[in-house]
Task: structure prediction
Amino acid sequence: MDSICHRGLTVLFMLSSAAGVVFSQPMAGFDTSRAPDERSLEAKFDAAIKAEDMRSWMKDLSSHAHHVGSKYDEKNAAYIASLFRSWGYDTRVEEFSVLFPTPKTRLLELTAPVTYRAGLTEPPIPGDTTSGQTAEQLPLYNCYSCDGDVAGQLVYVNFGVPKDYEELDRRGIDVKGKIVIARYGGSWRGIKPKVAAEHGASGCIIFSDPRDDGYFEGDVYPRGAYRSEFGGQRGSVADMPLYAGDPLTPFVGATKNAKRLPLKEARTLTSIPVLPISYGDALPLLRALGGPVAPAEWRGALPITYHLGPGPATVHLKVEFSWDMVPIRDVIATLKGSGQPDEWIIRGNHHDAWVYGAGDPLSGLVSMMEEARGVGLLAGRGWHPKRTIVYCAWDGEEPGLLGSTEWVETHADELSGKAAVYINSDGNGRGFFSAGGSHTLEKFVNQVAREVADPESHVSVSERLKAVQILRATVPERKVLRERADLRIGALGSGSDFTPFLQHLGIASLNIGYGGENGGGSYHSVYDSFDHFTRFGDPGFVYGVTQAQTAGRIVLRLADAEVVPFDFEDFTETIALYVQEVMKLADDMRDETDELNRKIRDKTFDVSADPTETWITPKAENPVPYIDFSPLQNALALLKRSTSLYCDAWKTTVAAGGALTAEKARSLDRLFMDFERSLTTKQGLPGRPWYVHQIYAPGRYTGYGVKTLPGVREAIETKNWKEAGEQIVIAAGTLEHAAGLIDGGTSLLKQ
Amino acid sequence: MDSICHRGLTVLFMLSSAAGVVFSQPMAGFDTSRAPDERSLEAKFDAAIKAEDMRSWMKDLSSHAHHVGSKYDEKNAAYIASLFRSWGYDTRVEEFSVLFPTPKTRLLELTAPVTYRAGLTEPPIPGDTTSGQTAEQLPLYNCYSCDGDVAGQLVYVNFGVPKDYEELDRRGIDVKGKIVIARYGGSWRGIKPKVAAEHGASGCIIFSDPRDDGYFEGDVYPRGAYRSEFGGQRGSVADMPLYAGDPLTPFVGATKNAKRLPLKEARTLTSIPVLPISYGDALPLLRALGGPVAPAEWRGALPITYHLGPGPATVHLKVEFSWDMVPIRDVIATLKGSGQPDEWIIRGNHHDAWVYGAGDPLSGLVSMMEEARGVGLLAGRGWHPKRTIVYCAWDGEEPGLLGSTEWVETHADELSGKAAVYINSDGNGRGFFSAGGSHTLEKFVNQVAREVADPESHVSVSERLKAVQILRATVPERKVLRERADLRIGALGSGSDFTPFLQHLGIASLNIGYGGENGGGSYHSVYDSFDHFTRFGDPGFVYGVTQAQTAGRIVLRLADAEVVPFDFEDFTETIALYVQEVMKLADDMRDETDELNRKIRDKTFDVSADPTETWITPKAENPVPYIDFSPLQNALALLKRSTSLYCDAWKTTVAAGGALTAEKARSLDRLFMDFERSLTTKQGLPGRPWYVHQIYAPGRYTGYGVKTLPGVREAIETKNWKEAGEQIVIAAGTLEHAAGLIDGGTSLLKQ
Result:
């Protein structure tokens, strides 16, 4: 281990100096004269970052299971808080009380045509120290599954997403009253029981297929990093796309005396019982299935012929939970701004884990802690950030972003007024830079990524990311990658603590990290351990250092800049893409529907079907109408015009070296904050008012996966044409309002 | 079984009458007044076709192993000949003497890191009657492998085609002196040892991966039709793209006194030993491999992580053969033409098998026999074909198209003068019509396919094929399928007995059959049995009947037509596609080479590579020059003009009801024959003069897979720009010559 660690660090230092050339570049948000000072501050910051801290904190924090409600969850929070205090932060632990069910009974039996009782346990693995601490481990289960005791025929439903059920319909297979078995992947896990229940299934089993998460991908633990035969994946199955956080307290902080929903009214709990299992436990079940052979794309890597069922396999699934209220503890550490203390740069990573959580979340957390220590050191040496920096170590992320959401809901008014940017991270590992977030920050993130050296390749993390994206790109994508000044950052869906900030309050957010060379299958298992992480995740914490340097730069610049370094150009260009996409979506759906109807009319399905198999001809669908996108098109035109005028004004004033008064700078910061807020609406998205952002939302049927222009896009996807029309008007209004704010900024610049 | 059989037949009869509407259509090659007579002849023919004959012949012919040189091979030939005689054919058995090695020693051992000795045997399976006759079965082996006794480290090479070795190069893996293990698929099997040897490997193991041929595809035998754990695939590994037939007698018939090459000069034998194994035997070998994890697309369905090696697995491979000369026996049955006896319509299917060969080739053979019986019956009732019909049951197809090739080589002069069309079939099964061949016959085949009823779908086999092609098509393909009058027929590469006719003599050929719903994995194993075929291949021989009706119509019409129903329009349109393709090939290669070189220059590979793995940066390649395609473009323009003038002339003469004298009709037949011959050149293709056709050839590195415009295409593919230029001139000359022949036809029509 040590040798890899040292090699990594040596390389890194060489790079830092090699990358010196970029230091003469301008720095967004900073006057040319101030940029060198800021860069010299960053060099001091870099020098303070030590891999050894991360290693020792991770070893300590992952030494015992520290899930929500556990002794070590509390202990870790207190320990983290004590460290922040020692670095000079004004630190407090905020406590909430949340619903956190844990299993009392977990039973899964194959009852016919042969019998098998699933073990549902992850065995200790030699060489993996903590895997033997079985008594304190939370067993394999899906959190926020309802209680249930069901029996019935088994049906294999692939990923269990809506289109999989269309495929089953084609084969005349109905899951009503049956128990479905779905493989992990293809959507967030919480979507699987939701869709299964919508189709009338009585229970849902989710398994890790070795095709996607096991020996097909690579050698299994402990020989390699991948999921072994009886490794499983815990995880939340709450209907998070409805609302995040404690199921009992939507919209309000889960404080001691908060008004809580009765358990029965908690709409994010599943309506059918769910249980996750390993591929070792799944094999006997799948092997016992009969019925048609599964479509080729549905087949995994188990050494069997995958069948759909239903039956002859029948199973008995029983899960019962202790529906406990438990405390969660967020660590909130503040470094007050000297100039604009009421503009907050918030930085967070969760600390709770499903078991030991070395990779998820500690790899990200310890890097953030090291970053915070570095920032604290600078502050101790007389530097003061202009804006207030708030470091947050969230609890309860795993069950459903509980810690961040309850904190955001509790402090919603203050945050709406003061939060400028939220920067999130979660697990971190060896590999490539990845960033998602508000597109007003795309240029800024790109600039930072061009100034951080990659420890493996001797180029900037931006250049390395571009190289790998070029290798994986289609021809048109490659062209854009080479010609566009900035690498695109992804839009955020959900799956980590940025969600309440961005999508519930409209606070500009970023989610950043490294990965892609840390392949493995320890996710949400007992094997996500210190031993596993230091062999496969990021030996030597080399990318922990890089992440600290990246996030540190982001925080320092955002906190120090004269004006928050936002930009409307990339934002507007991105919105134009989304508008194109939703229009194309409607056109494609129209073509597909016409084509489907033509095939039905032409008897194409009937004539080509194998008469020895069951094939149900799909039903003809109503043609997709032409939709009035003009409000969105007009709003986009307005946005483009406003953006262009703003850029011109910027170029002829600030960029031309014109003075920017402190007052004007504050007004521009306010414009930036108001701008992201302006992308939200009071009423929120159809059927899920908690989500108010009109540009970014987790998909109702993707979960983590983002839907951009979600109101419009999901109305089209679900063929709700009336709603599509309404949502187009709403999205257009949102963009017009945003354009108006930009115009205000233009006037301000010209004053 | 019987119930399926009866259902199929009932459906068929209903269809025959339902399909009556097409009978009013014109019939290519026939005067409008004669078409009804021909169709009534076909109705009589249809009525004669009986599934029960096929079943009983197959049961008999597959009751014992009947590979080349076996007692039952001889017995079957005699039996088939006796039947043809009984149906009124002038029948003889033509014998040749060919090299046919069979194994004396087959040894495959894993010698490290653990030991395993491959069983190399296919166990008897309960319910599969013949599988128990182990004594008479030819063991699992690859025919025309050289003798060899080699040992060394093992390397997994995916399909073992050239691009797989490029991938290995990228990872710094060299196969020199090592033994490669390749999975079946991705090319014809004979390509694998050839390419392995070109890269310096000392031995080659070929295994059937369950991903492509086993439980991944469907339930294994006997539960289902697919290859079971220890089922293997025999087959020839001769370098057939060099020349077909007996390795010792290229260009000449392997008659008793033919001049033979010494064994050492037989260039189609492999230069390294080869052995095929089951996935049961492959598993321990693959499991023992170390080195990098194989690329995702290389991984099969065995429950392991696929590694590339080399080693630590080392193997010992020893194969020794009896290099025997054995007799092969072609059954040639002639029905002399009454009008143009010197114009031959030749119809063939092989009779030899690797073991029992119920599917391959007997399913096709018994259908052809029933077809021949039907034609014989018509002849017995006073009908006489205008042209001579020759039915051929080939021996020795499996080792390398021996029977057909030696017969063609022996009778080359006579065939060049007399053969009008060769119609081939091989295995046949339940499913969709499939046709490949000379595009001058595309319109004709389409017309026939529109008049044969599909026994499952109640529509014509053409309509059913179109439906399934539409379902599988991309959007642009779908448009063509719907708008083009004819379904495209494939171009022929190799893999069955059409090769010597089409590609060595330039005789217009067709290859037809049904399949696609007869999925399974009995190919070239002992389980290709009567029991297997009648459960999964074509229960009730329903598609055997359909095939007889299809091929029967083709034979009857070709034999009876006033003029052979050829057409230049589809041919020319197809050639235009091929010309487009080879030009695009060069352009695409240019873009790819430029892109590769840019990535090397930009360090895209280096920067994105994982430093913990071995990655060799590819070498920069010479830019692809612009090639002078103008000779080909000009020749194509000429061909288009000639075709268009011929069509006009046809429309204003024959199609307008003008009289076609017998002499003119004969001249047009001659034109047709000369036309296909004109597509050949004396010198043949570069490096393989046996293959003389300039439009269709098996690919040097695909084997069965066709390369159209092969001289030009393969020169470009191998970046031999000088040869590409030369081949463009040759192909252009060929097309110009062909255009000249068409012009002659136009003059003839106008006379």
